Structures are given as C-alpha cells and as structure tokens.
Amino acid sequence: MKDIINTSKAPLAIGPYVQGVNLGEMVITSGQLPINPETNTMPENVDAQTLQSLNNALEILKSAGLTAKNIVKTTVFVKDLNDFPVVNEKYGEFFESHEAPFPARSCVEVARLPMDAKVEIEVIANR
C-alpha cells in the first residue's frame, strides 16, 4: 500500500509527481529543491541551498512521523562538483545537529537542475 505525502511545510511539487510516498516501513521523498516553502524563494549560495533542501526533505519525513534519524540513504545532485566541499560540510552539520547517524549517500554532478538550483537532495527513510 502506498500513501502519498503532502505537506505545506515543504515546496509543492512543480510537476507530475508528489513530495513523497509512504510505503509503511519506508518513506521516499522526491528530490527537494532548496525552495523556502513560506516565501517561495531560493537562497543564492550553495550552503544555504543545501540546508534548505535537507530541511524540506525532513519536513516531508516529519509529516509521516519520522525524523532525520530514520534517513538511511540520500542522493545529492550538485550543479558544480567544485561546490562539494561546502555541500559536504553543511550536510554533515545537518545530521550532527539532529544527532542522526550519517546515511549511505550518492553524490552526482548534473548539467542543470530545475529552477537553476545549485543542489537538490532526495532521501529514503526507514521506520
């Protein structure tokens, strides 16, 4: 059984997809752009974009009753791999601030992201 996750605390889907799906024991988010859901704006710098993307994914998980501690896998898409040291630092700070173990991770440089974002992050969490 699949439940669709929708929360106003994360950006609305901008296409034919959902914010996330709850599969019972597993929750999977769509890639989260660094859009502030309250202002509908995106920070300029990659460090703020990284944290906003992670916080957006976390809000989706929270709506399914999970926390950052439940994240078991992330995929990080970056527009410029030269930004990876900053992304990596903010990523680490995010999990440390939530006292969550680091999950498995993939990081991929892409030619372009929607809305010209510098980073997009998707997560998989387990109950």
Automatic annotation (TrEMBL):
Pfam families: Ribonuc_L-PSP. Signal peptide: none annotated. Coiled coil: none annotated. Gene3D superfamilies: RutC-like. Transmembrane segments: none annotated. Belongs to the RutC family. PANTHER family: 2-IMINOBUTANOATE/2-IMINOPROPANOATE DEAMINASE RIDA, 2-IMINOBUTANOATE_2-IMINOPROPANOATE DEAMINASE. NCBIfam families: Rid family detoxifying hydrolase (TIGR00004). This is Reactive intermediate/imine deaminase.
